[in-house]
Amino acid sequence: MMAVSEFLSRAELLKQGAEARVYRVQLLGRPTIVKERFPKLYRHPELDKKLTHRRTVQEVRSILRCRRAGIPAPSLYFVDYTSHCIFMEDVVNSCTVRDHIALLQRSDSPQQLEHLEHLAEQVGRLLAQMHDEDVIHGDLTTSNILLRAPGSGSGSELVLIDFGLSYISALPEDKGVDLYVLEKAFLSTHPHTEPLFEKLLQSYTCSSPRATAVINKLDEVRLRGRKRSMVG
Amino acid sequence: MTVVIGFEGSANKIGIGIIRDGEVLSNPRRTYITPPGQGFMPSDTARHHRAVILTVLKEALDQAGLKPADIDCVAYTKGPGMGAPLVTVALVARTVAQLWGKPLLGVNHCVGHIEMGRLITKANNPTVLYVSGGNTQVIAYSERRYRIFGETIDIAVGNCLDRFARVIKISNDPSPGYNIEQMAKKGSQYVELPYTVKGMDVSFSGILSYIEVSSAHKMLSSGQCTAEDLCFSLQETLFSMLVEITERAMAHCGSQEVLIVGGVGCNLRLQEMMDVMCKERGAKLFATDERFCIDNGAMIAQAGWEMFRSGHVTELKDSWITQRSLCLFTTWRTPWVI
Ligand SMILES: Nc1ncnc2c1ncn2[C@@H]1O[C@H](COP(=O)(O)OP(=O)(O)O)[C@@H](O)[C@H]1O
Ligand SMILES: [Mg+2]
């Protein structure tokens, strides 16, 4: 454990995300990302220990499950359960789908819409594949999907990351909520993209025989949200 | 100088406040308190508000040392909230606006909370955690709109606290949340409760059903833990979830400020936990005390002041109320400086 923290003290901090610090290092000559779930001092130590451990385990488990099914996620190099560090492949020459959408929206290329729609379809297809493996991501946002080799058109590939809140479930309800979380994050992050998200859902629907039940649940969850009374 | 009077009565508080260019001149309030084990019903709440509203109005004017002629605009809560109390208060606001010959302005309750928080704390562009009896939302302002990034997918945190208080018969005076907070200080044993976070959203119904489906009574009667321990564990669990989604929204939006508003926002343990999180990421926490966190008239006056100054008024025929809110609500202001 000492060794890991000493190693990280010299590493380049890439980002302090919502629940982890993300470092960029070289491990045996490979570009590597280290995701360190450090203790959160605001919460009760017992609760903190449980959550940190559970999330490290879930992240590893779901990445492996995806990779086994041929769904792109980073390769895992090494996990330290004492310091709660995951060492994984650095997806080099990549950017988040979030940044890429923002970039496309700002560009005035005549193919802007076409590129955006292509990307939305890719995301829809990928999520359908993931859900077909019964992986519920738990924190779907456009920041948690990377685009490898952006700009290279059809040669670009999506990579799913950040599985700390994920779990395994076959229930359409859980998959519907997963999409609901994405929908809200998507629309609040990228204004005026309702038709684009619709495309994403269409592609999701076409890509999985089990999608109809999920979309029905998504409609239910949306309706619940709208009906919720807001007193006080 | 612009003087706005604000009428708030969307839930069990009735408040009337007067604001003059950012200065709170008066802000009296009354709360409808129900016996332990009971929640407040719309018609009883409306009856309570009807009975005291004119007294509160007189207090507001007297404390401010103003006459109706000094008022420039009458603002009232148009929603979201409980229908019957909203109608009652809107009716009085409409009536005085016509009697005094002043313009009327319908204000969104959530926006009132946020604008009051910004006025009092001077927060510039915060990520807002809005937590009350009926609301649990993480809101940020971008592209001329308040946008909801995270929220509860079932019940509100205040509702969860209130219903927990009813299950173990904690007093509603002055509020269930306040009494839970005091009892929690005497609790020490941490009891694990369901913890459900989905991205930037939370779910509290699991905790509540865990507690309601006899767990609480079983744990208490078997001496496994005390009521104080349960209050402590409930707060630790609920507030950890709230801090976590706020932090996730901050990371997502790249924000370095947090503002807590709404009735649950005056809980000092929640503020303390949020502050630890903020310090750790080099961010700053802004919070207010119960005068402004809890529903009050000044917050409606303040939001009304901003709207009135930018040329908004509500015509009599448009002075409706609504029980629900739209997911996104546009605003009158130019974007916050980012
Ligand atoms: N394997 C990776 N390769 C390249 N960049 C990554 C990788 N993992 C994470 N990142 C970058 O770090 C950010 C935060 O990582 P993430 O796993 O999402 O942590 P958090 O839970 O803190 O959001 C991502 O949005 C992405 O920009
Ligand atoms: Mg992430």
TrEMBL record, chain A:
InterPro entries reported for this sequence: Bud32, Kinase-like_dom_sf, Prot_kinase_dom, Tyr_kinase_AS
Main location: nucleus
Broad EC category: transferase
PANTHER family membership: EKC_KEOPS COMPLEX SUBUNIT TP53RK (PTHR12209:SF0), NON-SPECIFIC SERINE/THREONINE PROTEIN KINASE (PTHR12209)
GO biological process, one term: tRNA threonylcarbamoyladenosine metabolic process
Species per Swiss-Prot/TrEMBL record: Gouania willdenowi (Blunt-snouted clingfish)
Cellular component, GO annotation: cytosol; EKC/KEOPS complex; nucleus
UniProt EC number: 2.7.11.1
Tagged with keyword Kinase: yes
Highest classification ranks of the organism: Eukaryota, Metazoa, Chordata, Craniata, Vertebrata
GO molecular function, one term: ATP binding
Function: Component of the EKC/KEOPS complex that is required for the formation of a threonylcarbamoyl group on adenosine at position 37 (t(6)A37) in tRNAs that read codons beginning with adenine. The complex is probably involved in the transfer of the threonylcarbamoyl moiety of threonylcarbamoyl-AMP (TC-AMP) to the N6 group of A37. TP53RK has ATPase activity in the context of the EKC/KEOPS complex and likely plays a supporting role to the catalytic subunit OSGEP. Atypical protein kinase that phosphorylates 'Ser-15' of p53/TP53 protein and may therefore participate in its activation.
Domain Protein kinase: 8-232
Self-association and partners: Component of the EKC/KEOPS complex composed of at least GON7, TP53RK, TPRKB, OSGEP and LAGE3; the whole complex dimerizes.
Gene for this chain: tp53rk
Catalytic activity: L-seryl-[protein] + ATP = O-phospho-L-seryl-[protein] + ADP + H(+); L-threonyl-[protein] + ATP = O-phospho-L-threonyl-[protein] + ADP + H(+)
Gene3D superfamilies: Phosphorylase Kinase, domain 1, Transferase(Phosphotransferase) domain 1
Pfam family, one: Kdo
Alphabetically ordered keywords of this record: ATP-binding, Hydrolase, Kinase, Nucleotide-binding, Nucleus, Phosphoprotein, Serine/threonine-protein kinase, Transferase, tRNA processing
Keyword Glycoprotein appears in the UniProt entry: no
Family: Belongs to the protein kinase superfamily. BUD32 family.
Protein name (record): non-specific serine/threonine protein kinase
Automatic annotation (TrEMBL), chain B:
Top-level taxon of the source organism: Eukaryota
Gcp-like domain sequence ranges: 29-301
EC class (word): transferase
UniProt KW keywords: Acyltransferase, Cytoplasm, Metal-binding, Nucleus, Transferase, tRNA processing
GO biological process annotation, one example: tRNA threonylcarbamoyladenosine modification
Required cofactor(s): a divalent metal cation
GO molecular function term, any single one: tRNA N(6)-L-threonylcarbamoyladenine synthase activity
EC code: 2.3.1.234
Binding site for a divalent metal cation: H109, H113, Y130, D295
Family designation: Belongs to the KAE1 / TsaD family.
Name the record gives this protein: N(6)-L-threonylcarbamoyladenine synthase
Gene assigned in the entry: osgep
